[in-house]
Amino acid sequence: MILKNIKKNQLQVNNISIMNIYFTASARATPETKNNYQKIFDAIENLGHKNIDDYRINTNPKKFYASSDDKKSEIYKYALESIKKSNLVILEVSTHSITMGYLIKYALDIKIPVVALYTNKNEPGFAIGIEDENFQLIEYETATIKDTIKKAIKYAGDVGNIRFNMLLSPKQSIFLKEAAEKEGISKATLIRKLLNKYKKESI
User: Fold this and answer.
1) Which domain holds residue 188?
2) Are residues 117 and 190 in the same domain?
3) Are residues 36 and 104 in the same domain?
4) Least buried of 43, 150, 169, 183, by fewest C-beta within 10 Å?
5) What is the largest CA-CA distance in the chain?
6) Which among 95, 96, 103 has a CA at the least distance from the CA of 76?
7) DSSP H/E element including 55
8) How far is residue 40's CA from residue 17's CA, in Å, rounded to a whole number?
9) pLDDT in tens, 122-173
10) What is the DSSP-derived secondary structure letter of residue 124?
11) Backbone torsion region of residue 15, taken as left when φ is above 0, otherwise alpha when ψ lies between -120 and 50, otherwise beta
């Protein structure tokens, strides 16, 4: 089945949700890490999902860094548009990259789930402190990458399925916003913390 012009909605094929996934990673990675890019890309396809972009798989890093500023700007804008069209963003973040950090923030700001993958001893410091229900930071091994991605995709789908709208008074909304800012976390994270606290106290 060929999927064309897919926007936000997932398709159902044989009762399986087909996600449009944007995968990318740093061009400055070691040869070993770059080999993992293809494995991640293939795993997404083998699980029945659609990679909406193959730029990082097919691009030549030397040509990219030697390209003009206009070309780099074009690639950057294309990355943001790809995120908008995706149901899920998967990034390989074993290599320190400011760009990957920005793409994570951009995706989360527009409520697109993000899975950030890294290999042993390459945990990205910039991502450790992110507290967002739509963000997963996962260490992986190449031998089990397909299973790791499968579980991450399922979790991202489950989180999307249990979202709900909460009606608050203006005073409640202001209080929630100020309390979350004071804690340095999102409003959703604060609500989850309060629910977990209530659950523990009720047992």
Assistant:
1) 170-202
2) no
3) yes
4) 169
5) 61
6) 103
7) helix 55-58
8) 19
9) 888 888 888 888 999 999 999 999 999 999 998 888 776 555 567 888 899 8
10) -
11) left
In a domain, 2, yes or no: no
Residue 77 phi/psi, 5-degree rounding, is -65, -35
104 exposure class (CB count in 10 Å sphere: 0-12, 13-18, 19+): buried
Both structure tokens of 174: 């202001």
Cβ neighbours around 67 below 10 Å, total? 15
Do residues 48 and 122 both lie within one domain? yes
Do the Cβ atoms of 184 and 132 come closer than 8 Å? no
State the residue for tokens 């923030």. Answer: 105
Cβ-contact 90, 60 below 8 angstroms? no
Question: Does some domain include residue 52?
Answer: yes
**Kind plus residue range of the DSSP H or E element containing 135:** strand 135-139
CA pair distance 127, 124, nearest whole angstrom: 6
pLDDT band at 193 (very low <50, low <70, confident <90, very high): confident
Q: Write the DSSP string, 179-201.
A: HHHHHTS-HHHHHHHHHHHHHHH
For residues 180 and 156, membership in a common domain is answered with: no
Q: In angstroms, rounded to a whole number, what is the distance separating the alpha carbons of residues 108 and 113?
A: 6
